[in-house]
Automatic annotation (TrEMBL), chain A:
CDD domains: Ras_like_GTPase
Designated name of the protein: Uncharacterized protein
InterPro entries the record matches: P-loop_NTPase
Taxonomic source organism: Actinomadura syzygii
Low complexity biased stretches: 284-311
Domain of life from the UniProt record: Bacteria
Region ranges (Disordered): 284-324
Length: 674, 346
C-alpha cells in the first residue's frame, strides 16, 4: 500500500557508516529512517542513488538539489528520490540528505517546495523518523508567482523549446531563477502529460547546481543546471509551440494551460509525445522567429527586460506593507501572478477573487480565531518567509454572501478548486455522509490512498467539527437535515497526492425542490462532481425516485453541463440491508486502494441491486453523466446511533470523485467511472 | 420475566410474540455475547429458543458483540434462503428470528441438541463414527452452498446427539470471498486465519475449503482423542489417512467436502449453491449495456456468455442443435412410416 510518508537518509563524508567500512573515503549513510535491523533496503537505495552522490574536487557554497522519479521497468519503479547535496569546500566538507518514497508523493513540485526546509540537522538520530510532507507545510513554499513573472518568459520559452524537442538531458546555466524555471517547466509538463502512458519519459528530473565535471544522467527528461555553461539556444522546430504554451502559462497559469489542452484537442491523445506533436503542428507559424533570432534569445542568467507591452502592472501590495505601528510590518499575500492579477475562485463563497495584496492573518489556536499577522520589523527575510507560509488571507467575499472566511496564503497557486456537491432528499442521510467523510479526513484516512488533506479554513473546519462531526461521533446524536433551499458550504481541503495540490470544496445541497433556489443553479454551474445520496428505504415499485436527483439532472442538462460533471451514486444506509446480496459482500471490503476493476464491479453490483429493488429512477445519474460510479456506504453504520456511530466505506465515493475529476492522475484513476 | 418481542423471522416476515424467560439454564456463551432460554408463545404453538444478544464484556465489548451477532444472523438468513422457505437441515443451528437494527439487537436460535463433541473425543462408539463424519461433512458442504464459512469449527462448536451433528456459534461466520481476518483459536485455527501465516501462504479471501482444515482435524480428534498436530499420526490410521488426505494443506489444495464424502462412499448430489436473484443479474447486464452505450470501447458484461463468432471469422463448427434437428426429422419420418403401416395394415 502506498504511504504518504517519506524515508530519509543522511550521508556524510567518511569511511564508515551504516553500510560498514569503505575502502576509500566517500559519502556514507550515517542515519536513516529505514529499518536498522537490516541493511538490505539501505543498500538498495545506496546502489540506486550512488551515481548522483559522486563528488567533485571543489564544491560551491550553495547546495544542489537532485530529483528523479524512477520509471516503470526499473528496480525502483514508482519511487522517487530528492537529494540535497552540500559541498562548500573540498570533498571532506560534503554531505547529502536524501528523501525518497512513492513518486506519487515525492513529486517534482514537492521537491521544489522543500528547497528551504531545515535540511539535515546536525544530529539526526541514527534511526531517523520518517518524514511526513504534510507536517512540513510550514516549510513548503510554491514558486507560482516567480515562475510566471513576465521577465522569465524568454528564458522559459528557450528552455521549453528544448523540452518539447523530446526527452533527454538539457543543460542550462545556474541563475537566480533556476528554481522558478524548473517550477514552470514542471507545471507545463504536468498539465500536458501527467499520468499518460509515456509520462515516465517526460516527467521532469533535475539537478539545480551541478559543479562536478562529470555526473550521470538519469533516463528521461533531465534538466541539469551548471555554473558557467553557455545558455542553450532555442530549438527552432519547437519554439513556436513553446511560445504558445509559455504565453498561456504566464497569462493565465495552469488553468489557462488546461483550457489550451482542451481547446487544442489534446485530451483525446493518450501520449505526451502525441500531444507535443499536435502542439508543434498547430503552432502559428508567425509566432516562430527565424532561427537566428532564436539563437539570440537571452539566457536565463542574462535575460533582458520584457517588452513594455508585456511588462507587469504595478503589483498591488507585493511585499510587506508598512503600517503605522512602529516596529512591525503588516504582511500581505503574494499575488498569484504579478502581471494581470489572476482571478481565483474561492472554494467557500464561490466568488471570484483578485488574488494578491490582501492582508495576511494567522490562526490563533488559543483564541480559536484569526488575527492579523504582524511581522516584527527586525525579522529577517527568512523569519518573515517562515511566518507568512502558514498565514491565511481573508476572502473579500465578493457578493457578500457569507460571513468572513479565510484561505491559505499559498492558495493562489492551487488553481481552480474542485467543487463537489451532495445531492439527496432530506431523509437520505447526506448531511451525515458529509460529516462522516470530514471525520474520516480528519482522522487521516485519506493517507491510505497516498493522499494528504489540509483544511483550507481552520476556523470553518473547527466549526464544522464542532457542529456536525462531534455531535454525531461523540454524543451519538442525529444531525439536523440541511434546511430547504440552501447550498451550504461544509468544508474545504487542500489535497495533495495526485501530483499537485488542489483545493476541494464540499457543499451540502438541500433536499427536494432545488428548482426554486437560485444559488443551487449557480452552484451547479460550477460543480465538478456530485455525490448522489440514495436512500434505500425509499426504493420500491412505482417510485419516481429522488426529486432532487431529477431536478439536478434536469438543470444540468438545461445548462449543457451534464457531460462535464462526474457523479458518484452512494447507496447510503447500507447497514439496514447488510444481510442482502451484494451489500453484505461489499461491506466486508474497505481497503484503501484505488482499484478501477473493483470500483467497476461494485458499480455494476449496486446498479443491479437497485434494479432488483425497483429503484431504476435512482440510477439516472449513471445513465446521464459521462463518468459515474456507484458505491455501498453507511454514514453511521447503524440506525440506532446510541450504539455508537461507525461509518463504513464513506471515503470511497469521495476518492472515486477525485479520480473522475482529475485530482488523482494515476493510470488507475483514469479508468474510474468509465 | 415476560416481554413482548417484535422481530423478523428467517424469511423476513414481521412477528410479534410474548416471550417468557425459561427456568432452564443455557450453556453460557463467551462474551461479548450472552444467551438466555425463552419460550415464545406464538398463536399456534409455543417454541423454545435461545436468545443471543451482545453484552458489554469481553474483548471488543459491545461493538464486537454487534459484529458477532450479525455473523449469526447472516449465516442463518443465507441458509434459510438456500432452502427456499423450507426448514433447513438440523445439522446447523436454525435461526428462528432476529432484530438487528435496534439499540438492543438479538437473534433467536433453536435450542442446542446433544453434547459438545469435546466430551466424546476418543470415546464415540465405533458404529457412530462414520455417521458423525458424514453428517459433519454434509453440514460443511451446506455452508459452502450458502456461500459462508464458519471459521470457528471445533469440539466446542460442534455437537452430537447420537444421530446428527449440530454446528453452533456462527458469530465468526464470513461470506466466501470476504477478505480473511485473524479468527479462531489453536489448534483448530487454520493457518490462513492465524496472526502469522506460514511462509509462502497468503491471507487472501475466505474460500469454500477454509472450514475443511478444522473439520478434518475434528474427525481425527473424535476418533482418536488426539490432536492431529503431526501428519505422521495418520500412518497408524490408514482409514483416516485415506479420508483426510490433503486436508492439512493450503486452502487452494485442500479437497472440498464433496470429495471427502465421496471417499466415504457418500455420492449424493451436493445442494445447489445459492443463486443470484435473476432481477439482479439482469440489472448487472443492463449496467454493462449502458456503459458500452456511453463508452463504446469498453468491454461487455464479463458474466454474460461471449457472443458467437462473426460471420467473417473462420467457419463455426456444426452446432449440436443441428444434430438434434436430424433426430427430429428422423422421428417424424418414423412416425409417418408407422402411420402408413397402420393405415395399410388396416
Amino acid at each position: 500500500m502506498t504511504t504518504s510518508l517519506l524515508h530519509q537518509t543522511l550521508y556524510r563524508w567518511g569511511t564508515t557508516g551504516r553500510l560498514g567500512d569503505l575502502r576509500d573515503p566517500g559519502l556514507c549513510p550515517v542515519a536513516s529512517s529505514l529499518d536498522p535491523s537490516s541493511t538490505a533496503e539501505l543498500r538498495r537505495w545506496h546502489d540506486l542513488v550512488e551515481p548522483w552522490l559522486r563528488l567533485g574536487d571543489r564544491g560551491v557554497a550553495e547546495p544542489s538539489f537532485f530529483y528523479t522519479a524512477f520509471p516503470a521497468g526499473t528496480a525502483a519503479a514508482g519511487e522517487a528520490v530528492l537529494i540535497r547535496r552540500v559541498q562548500p569546500g573540498d570533498a571532506r566538507t560534503a554531505s547529502a540528505h536524501l528523501l525518497f518514497g512513492s513518486a506519487g508523493v515525492l513529486t517534482p513540485r514537492l521537491a521544489l517546495e522543500l528547497r528551504d526546509w531545515t535540511w539535515a540537522p546536525a544530529h539526526l538520530p541514527g534511526r531517523a523518523p520518517m518524514v511526513n510532507p504534510t507536517s512540513l507545510i510550514a516549510y513548503r513554499s510554491g514558486l507560482s508567482d516567480a515562475a510566471r513573472t513576465p521577465a522569465l518568459r524568454h528564458p522559459l520559452v528557450t528552455l521549453m523549446s528544448r523540452v518539447l524537442a523530446g526527452p533527454g538531458t538539457i543543460e542550462a546555466p545556474v541563475t537566480d531563477d533556476t528554481m522558478a524555471l524548473l517550477w514552470a517547466v514542471d507545471d507545463i509538463c504536468t498539465v500536458l502529460g501527467s499520468g499518460l502512458r509515456d509520462w515516465d519519459d517526460w516527467r521532469v528530473a533535475f539537478e539545480t547546481n551541478d559543479e562536478r565535471l562529470w555526473s550521470a544522467d538519469p533516463p528521461g527528461m533531465f534538466l541539469r543546471f551548471r555554473r558557467g555553461v553557455p545558455p542553450p539556444g532555442a530549438e527552432p522546430s519547437t519554439r513556436a509551440a513553446a511560445l504558445a504554451l509559455v504565453r498561456q502559462y504566464v497569462t493565465g497559469g495552469t488553468n489557462a494551460l488546461r483550457d489550451l489542452r482542451s481547446s487544442a484537442g489534446l485530451n483525446e491523445l493518450d501520449t505526451m509525445a502525441a500531444r507535443v506533436d499536435r502542439l508543434i503542428a498547430d503552432a502559428p507559424p508567425s509566432a516562430a522567429p527565424a532561427p537566428a533570432s532564436a539563437a539570440r534569445t537571452p539566457a536565463p542568467a542574462a535575460r533582458t527586460p520584457a517588452p513594455a507591452e508585456s511588462a507587469p502592472a504595478p503589483p498591488r501590495g507585493r511585499g510587506p506593507a508598512r503600517v503605522a505601528a512602529a516596529g512591525t510590518f503588516r504582511a500581505s499575500a503574494p499575488s498569484s501572478t504579478t502581471g494581470k492579477g489572476e482571478q481565483v475562485s474561492c472554494p467557500i463563497c464561490l466568488g471570484r477573487l483578485d488574488w494578491g495584496g490582501l492582508p495576511l492573518y494567522t490562526y490563533d489556536r488559543g483564541l480559536n480565531q484569526y488575527t492579523e499577522l504582524v511581522v516584527p520589523k527586525d525579522a529577517n527575510r527568512e523569519q518573515r518567509a517562515r511566518m507568512t507560509r502558514t498565514a491565511s488571507v481573508r476572502c473579500p467575499n465578493p457578493g457578500d454572501t457569507m460571513t468572513a472566511h479565510y484561505l491559505p496564503a499559498g492558495y493562489g497557486q492551487y488553481g481552480s478548486p474542485a467543487v463537489y456537491g451532495f445531492i439527496g432528499g432530506t431523509t437520505s442521510g447526506k448531511t451525515h455522509l458529509v460529516a462522516a467523510m470530514v471525520a474520516a479526513i480528519e482522522r487521516g484516512e485519506l493517507g491510505g490512498y497516498g493522499i494528504t488533506a489540509q483544511p483550507v479554513d481552520l476556523d470553518r473546519h473547527q466549526a464544522f467539527l464542532r457542529d456536525m462531526v462531534r455531535p454525531l461521533f461523540t454524543e451519538s446524536t442525529w444531525l439536523t437535515p440541511t434546511r430547504e433551499g440552501e447550498v451550504a458550504f461544509a468544508d474545504a481541503f487542500v489535497i495533495s497526492g495526485g501530483g499537485r495540490q488542489r483545493a476541494v470544496a464540499l457543499f451540502d445541497v438541500a433536499g427536494s425542490e432545488l428548482s426554486n433556489v437560485g444559488d443551487a443553479k449557480r452552484f451547479l454551474d460550477i460543480a465538478d462532481g456530485l455525490v448522489f445520496v440514495a436512500d434505500p428505504t425509499r426504493f420500491g415499485p412505482g417510485s419516481l425516485g429522488d426529486p432532487s436527483f431529477n431536478t439536478v439532472l434536469s438543470l444540468l442538462r438545461a445548462s449543457g453541463r451534464l457531460s462535464r460533471v462526474s457523479a458518484a451514486i452512494v447507496l447510503n444506509k447500507a447497514d439496514l440491508f447488510k444481510f442482502d446480496d451484494p451489500i453484505a459482500h461489499w461491506l466486508t471490503r474497505d481497503s484503501a486502494v484505488l482499484d478501477a476493476a473493483e470500483v467497476l464491479d461494485e458499480s455494476a453490483d449496486v446498479f443491479g441491486y437497485m434494479r432488483q429493488r425497483d429503484a431504476e429512477a435512482w440510477t439516472r445519474p449513471y445513465l446521464e453523466c459521462d463518468r459515474a460510479t456507484l458505491h455501498v456506504a453507511s454514514a453511521t453504520g447503524t440506525d440506532a446511533v446510541e450504539r455508537g456511530v461507525r461509518p463504513q466505506r464513506v471515503l470511497r465515493p469521495l476518492v472515486a470523485l477525485m479520480a473522475m475529476t482529475g485530482l488523482l492522475t494515476s493510470a488507475e484513476a483514469k479508468d474510474i467511472g468509465i | 420475566m415476560n416481554v413482548r418481542l417484535s422481530y423478523r423471522d428467517a424469511h423476513g416476515a414481521r412477528v410479534d410474540a410474548k416471550a417468557v424467560e425459561a427456568d432452564q439454564d443455557e450453556p453460557p456463551l463467551r462474551p461479548p455475547l450472552e444467551t438466555v432460554r425463552l419460550n415464545l408463545e406464538l398463536p399456534d404453538r409455543t417454541v423454545a429458543v435461545r436468545c443471543v444478544r451482545p453484552v458489554d464484556r469481553g474483548a471488543g465489548g459491545l461493538a464486537e458483540g454487534y459484529r458477532r451477532l450479525d455473523g449469526e444472523i447472516l449465516a442463518g438468513l443465507r441458509l434459510a434462503r438456500l432452502c427456499d422457505g423450507r426448514p433447513y437441515p438440523r445439522t446447523v443451528t436454525r435461526l428462528v428470528g432476529y432484530e438487528a437494527d435496534t439499540a438492543a439487537p438479538f437473534a433467536l436460535l433453536e435450542p442446542l441438541r446433544g453434547v459438545e463433541v469435546e466430551t466424546l473425543a476418543g470415546t464415540l462408539p465405533t458404529e457412530q463414527r462414520r455417521r458423525f463424519q458424514v453428517r459433519l461433512l454434509r453440514a460443511v458442504r451446506l455452508l459452502g452452498a450458502a456461500g459462508i464459512s464458519h471459521r470457528g469449527l471445533g469440539p466446542d462448536t460442534v455437537r452430537w446427539d447420537g444421530d446428527d451433528v449440530q454446528i453452533t456459534d456462527f458469530s465468526q461466520a464470513a461470506l466466501i470471498g470476504a477478505p480473511r481476518t485473524v479468527v479462531g483459536a489453536m489448534p483448530w485455527q487454520a493457518p490462513e486465519q492465524r496472526p502469522e501465516t506460514p511462509p509462502g501462504w497468503v491471507r487472501g479471501e475466505v474460500g469454500p475449503n477454509d472450514d475443511l482444515w478444522a473439520a478434518g482435524r475434528l474427525i481425527f480428534y473424535v476418533v482418536t482423542g488426539e490432536d492431529l498436530d503431526d501428519t505422521a499420526k495418520l500412518d497408524a490410521r490408514p482409514e483416516l489417512a485415506a479420508l483426510l488426505a490433503g486436508v492439512i494443506e493450503r486452502p487452494e489444495r485442500r479437497p472440498d467436502a464433496q470429495t471427502l464424502l465421496r471417499r466415504l462412499g457418500e455420492a449424493d448430489p451436493p445442494p445447489r449453491p445459492l443463486a443470484a436473484d435473476p432481477a439482479f443479474a439482469r440489472g448487472r447486464a443492463e449496467f454493462f449495456a449502458q456503459r458500452r452505450r456511453k463508452h463504446p470501447g469498453t468491454a461487455p458484461d464479463p458474466e454474460s456468455p461471449p457472443p458467437p463468432p462473426a460471420p467473417a471469422a473462420r467457419p463455426a463448427p456444426p452446432r449440436p442443435r443441428r444434430d438434434r434437428s436430424w433426430l427430429l426429422w428422423a422421428g417424424v419420418a418414423a412416425m409417418v412410416v408407422l402411420a402408413v403401416y397402420l393405415v395399410l395394415g388396416r
